[in-house]
Amino acid sequence: MAKADTSPSQCKQEVGHVHDECRSVILPGRNPSALCCQLVRAAHVKCVCSYVTPKVANFIPVRRTIRQIEGCGRSVPRNFKCGSEFSTSNLYLIYIS
């Protein structure tokens, strides 16, 4: 994962790609595609978490999202705050960092 700072336009583009490729996985019974997982593994926390506003968080099933991130080889630490949401998972996971 790249550690370099990203510009606002790079963040917007990154979030757009993740959103476009991964949005269907919030539906029950759907798993992330290989491209979705590739984008999740490469995503910058700063970019993705800035997108998680209270309005967006109302539409995201947090526990399912955490399981999907784990399925892509990433994890979310307990009580990690991303945007307006805390992870509520009791599982030990490693998040996009």
Structural domain count: 1
Trace the largest sheet across and list its strands.
1-2
Give the structural class.
mainly alpha
Number of E-type strands: 2
Under CATH, the topology can be stated as Hydrophobic Seed Protein
Average pLDDT for all residues: 78
- Uncertain segments are 89-97
Task: Provide the CATH top-level class.
Answer: Mainly Alpha
State the major sheet. 2 strands, antiparallel
What level of helicity do the residues show? 40-55%
CATH architecture: Orthogonal Bundle
Q: What percent strand?
A: under 5%
- What overall form do the CA principal axes indicate? globular
From the N-terminal CA to the C-terminal CA, the straight-line distance is: 8 Å
Order of helices and strands: HHHHHEE
- Count of helix runs: 5
* Estimated radius of gyration: 12 Å
Structure description:
- InterPro entries: Bifun_inhib/LTP/seed_sf, Bifunc_inhib/LTP/seed_store.
- One of its GO terms (molecular function) is lipid binding.
- Keywords: Lipid-binding, Transport.
- Plant non-specific lipid-transfer proteins transfer phospholipids as well as galactolipids across membranes. May play a role in wax or cutin deposition in the cell walls of expanding epidermal cells and certain secretory tissues.
- It comes from Pyrus ussuriensis x Pyrus communis.
- The C terminus is likely disordered.
- The longest helix is centred in the first third of the chain and has 15 residues.
- Helices cover 46% and strands 4% of the residues.
- By secondary structure, it is mainly alpha-helical.
- 20% of the residues are buried.
- A two-stranded antiparallel ribbon has the order 1-2.
- It has a single domain, classed as Hydrophobic Seed Protein.
- Helix 1 runs antiparallel to helix 2 and helix 1 packs across helix 3.
- The protein has five helices and two strands, in the order αααααββ.
